[in-house]
C-alpha cells in the first residue's frame, strides 16, 4: 500500500518548520513580529459580517457552481468602476484565488507546457502548474533592478516552443514590482506574436504607490481573447479567511473549461459569497484609504531597511511585500537564529526566506521577503529587530 | 491558442440542459417538484448561524491549512460518540466532501491505477479519479437486487493488477444501498489480501432505516492503516452551502500527502468552520430526528412508486436516494417530455436520469434517481406526477 509518486514528489511547506520554532519561542515568553505571511492586521470591513449575519434563508443551500448572480454582478460593477468591462457571465466565483489559478492551469495546460513567470514568484504557482502537468519557466530578475522583468528582450529570450502562457502578478508577490499599462500592452504584443495565454493575477490591483495608476490586463481590449484574470477578496478587503476568488475571461472555451471543474466541486461557500458581494459594493474611497495605509507602512519599512549595512533593496512600488538581499550566506540559518537564539527586550521577528520563491533556490539564499501587514510602528520594530538580529548573527559568526 | 486536451475531454454536467428546460417551464407558470438533486429542504440547525453571527474576531483571517483545532476536536468527539476513535490530528478539514475526495485520489493514485466502485456510482468520483490520473473500474449491480454489491466473489472478480483502491459509499448515492458492519469487515479482508486502499465516503452515515445500525469502516480496527474516510456537513446537517468536508485516516503518509495539497490552497472558509464546529456538537437525538423524517419520506416514496406499472424498485435501506427502473427506453427523453410537454394542474416533476451514474450509460437508460429531499406530501405528489407523466408519455408514444 503506497501513496502516489506525485504526492511523494510534492513537499510540505518549509514554513511549517519555522512555525514550530516560532511556537517554541512564544512558549519561552518571546513576542514574535510575524511579517512572514500575507495576513494583514487590518479589520475586515464591517459590511462583510453584516451581510453574513443578515443572510435570509434558513437552509444554507448549494449555490450555482459558477457563483451567485448577486456576487458576479457586484464583481462586474467593481471592475466597471475602473473602466474594465466584464459581464457577470464572464466572471466565475471560486474557492479563493488559489482555486481560480488551479482551474486556469488545468484548463489551458497540456503535459509539458511551460508557463513563464518572473523569478522569484509566488510559490504556489508552481504547485498549480505542476498539478496540471505543466512546467514553470523563468524570466530572470535582479535585486538591483527592483526585480522588474518587463523588458521585451528578456521576456522573448525566455520563450521556447513549449511556452503556453505568461503569468503576471502586478503588483507583485514576493517583490512588490509593478507593471505599467504600457508594459502590459507590450506583454500582450509578445503574447500575440507567440500565441500565448496571459494569466494575470490581480489580487493587489489597487496597492500601487507614489501616485501610480491601477493598471489591468483587462483594459487591453484587442487582446482580451487570450487574457485570463484571477482575483480574490483576501488582500484588498483583508478577508483571507473568506474563501472567495474570481476567474475572469472573455474567452468562452476557458470559461466552459473552468465550469466543468466548478461543477465537480459543486459550489463555493454560500455565506462567504453573501459577504463578498457586500465588499465589492464598498465605495471607491475604501481603496484609497487602504492604499494610503500600506504606502505609509511601505515608507517606514523602506526607511528602516536602508539603515541595515549591506542590504540591497529598491523601494517597492506596489503590493505589501518587499524582497531584500541581506549580507548573509544562508537566509534560513539566519531565520533559525532569530527564532531560537536571538531576542531584544523579549522580542524577535519572523520573515519568509526567499529561497522558496526562486526557481533555483540558491538564488534566494541571501534574500528574505517581508510582508508589511502590521501597522507602522510594529513594522518599524520588525525591521529594527532584523537589523539587531543581523548584528548579533554577524558577531556570533565572527566568534566561531 | 488552445485549451488543454484534458479540459476538452471533460464534459459539462448534462443536468444543465434540463435546468434550462425547467426554467422555461417555470416561466410558463408550471410548478416543478425538484427531486433531482440532493439539496434537502430541512432547515440548517440554528446553531450554525448562531456560531457564525457570534464569530469574535474582526479580521476574517486564514485558518490553519488542515482546519481549526476547534472543528477538528468537534469532529473527533462526534466520531467518538459512535465508538469511532480518531484523534484531531487524524482529521483534516476540506472545502466540502468534494475536495476531500479529490485530495484522497491525488494522494493515492498513480497514472492508470484503478478504483473499484459499485456501478452505478456518484458521478463526481469519476471526475476526481480521472483528474488524479486514475481509472474507474466497476462492480456490477442489479436493480432487482436493490443494487447491493457486497458479495465477495463479485468484488474479487472485479479486481485486476491495476486495482489500487475500493471506494464505498454506504448508505449509497444514487441507490440507497447499505453495507452492514459484517460486510465492511469482509471488504477489509479482501482489501488486505489484495493490498488495496479503502476509501469510505460516509456522508450519509446516520441515514439508515428499518432499525439498521450506523456502520463505519472506522470501526475496523485491524485495517485502519489502509482506510480513508471522507465526510461532509452537507447532508447530515442540511448545510450543503457551508463548504466543510472532512478527510480522516490513521495513515500518516495519506495525511501528509493531503496536507501538501491543503497548503497549496491555503485554508478553508473561516466562518463555515466556526458554524460546522457547532453542528458537530449537536446532541445525538438530532440524528434520530433527521433519520426518522427521511425514513417517513422513504416509505411514502416507495409506496407511491409501487403504484407505477412496470417499475422495478427494491425498498432502499439508507441515504435519501432511490434508483428506479421505469418502463421507458430513453429516460432522458421521458424527462424532456415531463419538462416541456407534460403538466397536471400546472405542476410537473424533475428527477435525475440515471444514465449519468453508470460506467456504461446504456445501463442507466431506463432508470431514474429520485432524491427524497422534500417533505412527505410533496414527495407523494412528485411520484404521482411521475406516474401520471408516464401514462401521458406512453399514450403519446402509442399515438406516434
Would you give an account of this structure?
The structure is a homodimer of 400-residue chains. Chain A has 400 residues and is an alpha/beta fold. Chain A contains 13 helices and twelve strands. Chain A has two domains: 5-43 and 285-399, Aspartate Aminotransferase, domain 1 (Alpha-Beta Complex), CATH 3.90.1150.10; 46-280, Aspartate Aminotransferase, domain 2 (3-Layer(aba) Sandwich), CATH 3.40.640.10. Chain A has helices at 5-9, 15-27, 46-53, 69-80, 96-108, 124-131, 152-158, 181-193, 252-264, 270-280, 285-305, 331-340, 376-399, and strands spanning 31-34, 91-94, 114-119, 135-140, 163-169, 197-201, 227-232, 245-249, 321-325, 347-350, 352-353, 367-371. In chain A, the strands form three sheets. A seven-stranded mixed beta sheet of chain A has the order 2-8-7-6-5-3-4, sandwiched between helices. The radius of gyration of chain A is 21 Å and the shape is globular. At the A-B interface, α1, α3, α5, α6 and α9 of A face α1, α3, α5, α6 and α9 of B.
What does the secondary structure layout of this molecule look like, with pairings?
Two copies of one chain form a homodimer.
Chain A: H1 5-9, H2 15-27, E1 31-34, H3 46-53, H4 69-80, E2 91-94, H5 96-108, E3 114-119, H6 124-131, E4 135-140, H7 152-158, E5 163-169, H8 181-193, E6 197-201, E7 227-232, E8 245-249, H9 252-264, H10 270-280, H11 285-305, E9 321-325, H12 331-340, E10 347-350, E11 352-353, E12 367-371, H13 376-399
Parallel strand pairs in A: 1-10, 3-4, 3-5, 5-6, 6-7
Antiparallel strand pairs in A: 2-8, 7-8, 9-12, 11-12
Helix pairs in contact in A: 2-12, 3-10, 4-10, 5-6, 5-9, 11-13
Amino acid at each position: 500500500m503506497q501513496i502516489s509518486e506525485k504526492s511523494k514528489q510534492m513537499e510540505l511547506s518549509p514554513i511549517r518548520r519555522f512555525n514550530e520554532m516560532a511556537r517554541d519561542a512564544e512558549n519561552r515568553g518571546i513576542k514574535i513580529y510575524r511579517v512572514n505571511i500575507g495576513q494583514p492586521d487590518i479589520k475586515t470591513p464591517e459590511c462583510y459580517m453584516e451581510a453574513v449575519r443578515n443572510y435570509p434563508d434558513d437552509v444554507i443551500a448549494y449555490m450555482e457552481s459558477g457563483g451567485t448572480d448577486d456576487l458576479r454582478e457586484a464583481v462586474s460593477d467593481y471592475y466597471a468602476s475602473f473602466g474594465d468591462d466584464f459581464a457577470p457571465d464572464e466572471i466565475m466565483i471560486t474557492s479563493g484565488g488559489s482555486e481560480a489559478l488551479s482551474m486556469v492551469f488545468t484548463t489551458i495546460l497540456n503535459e509539458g507546457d511551460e508557463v513563464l513567470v518572473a523569478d522569484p514568484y509566488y510559490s504556489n504557482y508552481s504547485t498549480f502548474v505542476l498539478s496540471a502537468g505543466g512546467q514553470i519557466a523563468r524570466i530572470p530578475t535582479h535585486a538591483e533592478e527592483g526585480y522588474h522583468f518587463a523588458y521585451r528582450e528578456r521576456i522573448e529570450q525566455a520563450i521556447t516552443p513549449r511556452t503556453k502562457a505568461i503569468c503576471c502578478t502586478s503588483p507583485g508577490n514576493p517583490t512588490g514590482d509593478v507593471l505599467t499599462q504600457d508594459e502590459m500592452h507590450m506583454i500582450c504584443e509578445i503574447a500575440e506574436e507567440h500565441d500565448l495565454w496571459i494569466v494575470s493575477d490581480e489580487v493587489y490591483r489597487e496597492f500601487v504607490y507614489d501616485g501610480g495608476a491601477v493598471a489591468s490586463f483587462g483594459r487591453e481590449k484587442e487582446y482580451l481573447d487570450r487574457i485570463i484574470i484571477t482575483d480574490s477578496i483576501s488582500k484588498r478587503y483583508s478577508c483571507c479567511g473568506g474563501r472567495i476568488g474570481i476567474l475572469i475571461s472573455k474567452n468562452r472555451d476557458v470559461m466552459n473549461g473552468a465550469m466543468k471543474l466548478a461543477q465537480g466541486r459543486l459550489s463555493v461557500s454560500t455565506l462567504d459569497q453573501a459577504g463578498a458581494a457586500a465588499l465589492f459594493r464598498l465605495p471607491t474611497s475604501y481603496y484609497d484609504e487602504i492604499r494610503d495605509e500600506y504606502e505609509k507602512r511601505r515608507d517606514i519599512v523602506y526607511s528602516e531597511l536602508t539603515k541595515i549595512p549591506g542590504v540591497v533593496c529598491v523601494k517597492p512600488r506596489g503590493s505589501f511585500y518587499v524582497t531584500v538581499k541581506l549580507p548573509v550566506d544562508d537566509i534560513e540559518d539566519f531565520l533559525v537564529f532569530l527564532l531560537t537564539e536571538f531576542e531584544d527586550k523579549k522580542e524577535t521577528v519572523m520573515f519568509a526566506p526567499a529561497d522558496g520563491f526562486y526557481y533555483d533556490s540558491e538564488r534566494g539564499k541571501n534574500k528574505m521577503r517581508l510582508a508589511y501587514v502590521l501597522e507602522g510602528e510594529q513594522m518599524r520594530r520588525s525591521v529594527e529587530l532584523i537589523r539587531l538580529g543581523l548584528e548579533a548573527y554577524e558577531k556570533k559568526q565572527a566568534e566561531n
